Amino acid sequence: MATRRAFIRPRPAGCPARRRGKLPPTLATPSAPSEPRNVLGGRLEPCSLQPRTGFFRNGCCDTGPDDVGAHVVCARMTQEFLEFSRSRGNDLVTPVPEFGFPGLKPGDRWCLCVARWKEALDAGVAPPVALRSTHEAALAVVALEDLTKRALDLQ
Question: Exposed, middle or buried by CB within 10 Å (0-12, 13-18, 19+), for 73?
Answer without folding.
Answer: buried
